[in-house]
## 1
Amino acid sequence: MTTPSLEALLQQEEALILSRFSVDDAWWLGCYLREKGAAGHLPIAIEICLGPTCLFSTLLPGATADNQGWIKRKVALVWRYQRSSYAMAQKFAAKEGSFERYGLDHQTYAAAGGAVPLRVTGVGMVGVVAVSGLPQLDDHLMVLDALSALQDWQKGPAQA
């Protein structure tokens, strides 16, 4: 699979701005990710936060507390830069040593895909959705797919 460019990643993020984000939306999104993960027998951890409050968190078989640690560090990076952890990983990879030049440490931040900001139209970033346990691009794409599905779900049944 070809790695998307940083510009393409940022465009994808902008296309996934939500009309709203509530506790019900978090539950729907978490269940969607869990069902996809379970159907594929994926050893993933999932976490969804609204502000500092965790609204959904689960480990599927094969995932461990280490995956939760990765999520915590990916989420910290997203809050700091308000961009997906995968987009930031690509940015840091483009210029050797830039992670450290920004004053980041690996115990607090992880520049690896899988955490994406939750943005609401007219509000901005309100939370983060994260997956850990797969190769970083797969984690990232799984979250993007789920956010696209959430946008569709929020629109409700198609009007005839």
## 2
Amino acid sequence: MPVIAPMPAAHPAPLPSQRESAEDAVPAGTTVDHLTETYRAHYRSLLGLAALLLDDTASCEDVVQEAFIRVHSARRRVRDKEKTLAYLRQTVVNLSRSALRRRILGLKLLSKPMPDMASAEEGAYDQLERDALIKAMKGLQRRQREVLVLRYFADMTEAQVAQTLGISLGSVKAYGSRGIAALRVAMEATA
């Protein structure tokens, strides 16, 4: 049978006298009104600071807006009313640095050249050449075809081809040269 954990006891609502003392405990520098006033009064100077670090107006505005949002979210950590502007300035600087890092990374990724790839026309042309070569190879005598396939496609030496086919080295050379000559004629006829 599953065990059901008891629900935590709800905290009773503070009495009116307790609420007033809790509000008094919040430092003056952390109020939303103070942050809003600071933001309105120093928006242009913060925008100028961001403009010194970044190069386009849209990014500067985004950085200043984001700085205000972040300081607003962390307003409980601002203990001194006089440090609110300093927090905003430092946040603008940090966000500008981050924006520059993202740009530099983006430029590094974009500056890498794309790998060379054959165009569709080149691929089609190569396929036609392969098809013509295969057709021409099928038209060769069996021994010529065997010698050429082992020599050039299997990348064997003439001695290895001779040993594999059980023929002499001279025969490998003769079949090879006659096969290449026949391929040349067949390929010129298709071109």
## 3
Amino acid sequence: MSRNEIPIDGLKIGSGHKPLVVAEISGNHNGDLQRALSIVDMVAESGAGAVKLQTYTADTLTINATQPHFKISSEHPLWGGSTLHDLYSVAFTPWEWHEKIFARAREHGLIPFSSPFDDTAVDLLEDLDAPLYKIASLEIGDLALLRRVARTNKPIILSNGAATLADLDLAVQTIRAEGNDKIVVLACTSSYPASPAESNLRSIPIIRDALDVHVGLSDHTLGIGAAIAAVAFGAAVIEKHVTLSRADGGVDSDFSLEPAELGALARESETAWLALGEPTLRPTASESESLRLRRSLYIVEDVRAGDVISPRNVRSIRPAGGLEPLFLPVVMGRTFSKDCSRGTPLSWSQF
């Protein structure tokens, strides 16, 4: 089986561990290194486990062109009408910032990593000893990039936005062909913001079982509801975009989490994971007191030998200790064989 837990910088990804919450900075630094570092500080305070960048320039990702196919559709709610080059020129994280951001993250005990978009980005991230890599949704078909990243022999997280199961299978097989089986696939809806109705969280266990990989969610919906729900379907990694304040603006701010929301995600995703427990329908260890307080049959008034058991002197009440309530019809009408005081649990020896 390939789904052994994946160790990363002292943390582990797998069903036996709380979900790894990944905070994506993306372009929400708004072109300010100090803001980027402040976001890292905020992520550390939130309780999330990792912080992620995207490593590209406008020119490594596209070309400066204005033909219609190089423009985002005008009806797009956030970036409509922008050329790809203009958008990426605003959203990219300068490469000279990476070392400082990685260092700040490591000071806090966070896992720093990034999505590379070409070989030069991988070179930079290798120089920074990135402990894992993320392949963005729209790069899942770039097999040369997948091979290059796979050869680092570091864990790889894939997003499946806008991809089919066949696309995913090809990507996973390409990585495995390089001898790398440390793979996590994130269910993802590649729209910004995404509708919860299109999250299709039920696909998460299907991806897990079909490809024999760890799974998670890259979530672009508003809030944390979809992300928390994903834990119930087996998500071992949850990725959300983050910002200091949506009011500050930024290319991804509209669907990014603010500090209090990220803190809630870190807490509640662990709670959801703990709540999964085991598929059992027996009382738990912590329910011993509740078991003691379950109903049973008690003598509710003083009786003497020879008295007849009736609803007046025997009832089903709390706590436990007497015969189970299911025996109430069986004992009605029988005769007490000894004197008993009020508050005595009913037993077979008394009649």
